[in-house]
Amino acid sequence: MALLVTRRRGGETLPSREFEDVYDRLGQLMSAALGETEGGVMGPWIPMADVSETENSFVVEVDVPGVSKDQIDVQLSERELIVSGQIEEREHERRHRKTRRTGRFELRTLLPGDVDDERVDARLHDGVLTLTIPKAEAAKPRHIEISA
Description:
Blueprint: E1 6-9, E2 12-15, H1 17-34, E3 49-53, E4 57-63, E5 72-77, E6 80-87, E7 103-110, E8 121-125, E9 128-134
Family: Belongs to the small heat shock protein (HSP20) family.
Protein name: Heat-shock protein Hsp20
Pfam families: HSP20
């Protein structure tokens, strides 16, 4: 069984931000599944995404099929990454089936370490937005010499 990571703030133990993210996402999923809306408008849906790490950077790949770069907004504030946008529904004379998501989407994720937000590389290719976010120098692993 995995243990819940906690933070300490002023002597008080709080659940980690990651737990809060999971809780928020579960709430969005349940609202969407039950057809609940906010003000009569369905809230944003969350695109599929992978977050991975190399020695020097974090790599985030977000599935956004059929979306152009002009329809996507990417924001990075400290370690929080927000990818949002809108997929317009296409008009069809007669629709037989609809399983593709349309409307507003938003992915929020907290990156697992400090980042250099001045050198982020964003590329959109074949419906996948790939963000390469360099780690801050303080977050990179360093070799520590052992003395006698």
